[in-house]
Amino acid sequence: MPTINLSGARVAYTQSGSGETVLLLHATASSGAQWRALTESLLSGCRVVAPDLYGYGETDPWPGNGLFTLAAEAALADAVLPPGDGLIHLVGHSYGGAVALRFATQYPQRLRSLVLIEPVAFHLLKGDWPDPANRPLFREVKEIAALVSRAVSNGDYRGAMARFVDYWNGEGAWVRTKPELQAALARRTSKMALEFWATMTESTPRPAYRRITVPTLVLRGGQSPRPTRRIAELMAECLPAARLQRIDGAGHMLPLTHKEVVNAAIAKHLLCHMADRDRPAAA
Predict the structure, then answer these.
(1) Cystine design at 102: which of 49, 74, 83, 155 (Cβ 3.0–4.6 Å)?
(2) In angstroms, how far is CA 83 from the centroid of its own chain?
(3) Pair 220, 244: CB distance under 8 Å
(4) Do residues 106 and 122 lie in contact, with contact meaning Cβ atoms separated by under 8 Å?
(5) Domain containing 105: what range?
(6) pLDDT tens-digit readout, 226-244
(7) In-domain check, residue 109
(8) Residue 266 within any structural domain of the chain
């Protein structure tokens, strides 16, 4: 797996295929390997780049040289792109979706198209998005964030992760999780706390999102937690060229639980917005 050095941290990523670049950003507690099936389906017409974000896979933890922000994670994503690369297609899920949104505002000149899969851009539920119906949704997320942050101080990593996993996957999900995966999740508690901080304190104002004019597909599950369903709706309403697609029966982890339909939707969107539309369709 190739790596680069970014401000003292080793950043790992995969790169395969040839053609227009598709940059894939993974969810919390995952890695670039999350996209293996999608990568295989796109290789006939795309160069696919999938980094491990800070603290995941083979990438070093955040080095602590300043406040942790979505901008820092977006800079990591930009750093793994080939030098002089042209316009890219960007895909992000969950935390990776929040990073993708920041990337789109930070590097708008880099994008050809965008796919957002339930981005956890929690700041959209407060601030200059003043719908009162959003306030209880923000409080709901804030409770989970506070539990994870307290665990960093008091050491109850497993207790916090049990609540975290059940919140995103349904009650009882933690108990059904294999012990080795439980242990791996517990070790990532500190990074998850940083991610809650970054996604809840992000300061990008609403007008900045209206300037994301590339064709955008927003995917959400029919059974996902209310905050991410609402954020997906807000993005579909705000982005000028966005289209919302609901995957019935799916929850927040839809790229894993409903990978066939999700990957097909992503591939169709990418194919429609490639500069060379004669490239082969993805499987």
Answers:
(1) 74
(2) 23
(3) yes
(4) no
(5) 3-127+204-272
(6) 999 999 999 999 999 999 9
(7) yes
(8) yes
List the Cα angle 12/68/122 in 5-degree steps. Answer: 100
**Alpha carbon distance 251, 133 (integer Å):** 21
Produce one character per residue of 233-259: b if its CB has 16 or more CB atoms within 10 Å, e if not.
ebbbebbeebebbbbeebbbbbbebbb
Q: What is the pLDDT of residue 244?
A: 98
Domain CATH for 9: 3.40.50.1820
Q: Kind and range of the H or E element at 246? A: strand 242-247
50 lies in some domain: yes
Task: Give the E-state strand segments of the chain in sequence order.
Answer: 3-6, 9-17, 20-25, 46-51, 88-93, 111-117, 216-221, 242-247
d(CA 178, CA 181): 5
Contact 86, 110 (CB under 8 A): no
Mean pLDDT over each residue of the chain, to the nearest integer: 94
Task: For residue 209, give both structure tokens.
Answer: 């999102």
Residues 89/113, Cβ–Cβ less than 8 Å: yes
Q: How far apart are CA 200 and CA 141, in angstroms?
A: 9
Helix (H) or strand (E) holding 262: helix 259-272
Q: Per the domain annotation, does 164 fall within a domain?
A: no
Q: What is the pTM of this model?
A: 0.95
What is the tens place of the pLDDT at every residue in 16-65? 999 999 999 999 999 999 999 999 999 888 999 999 999 999 999 999 98
Strand, helix or coil for residue 159: helix
Q: Residue 69: count other Cβ atoms within 10 Å of its Cβ.
A: 17
| In the chain, % of residues over pLDDT 90 | 88
The single residue listed with the structure tokens 């009882």 is 172
What total of structural domains would you count in the chain? 1
Residues 222 and 248 sit within 8 Å (Cβ to Cβ): yes
Phi-psi region of 178 (alpha: psi -120 to 50; beta: other; left: phi over 0): beta
Token pair listed for 196: 């809650």
Cα angle value 36/101/192 (rounded, 5°)? 70
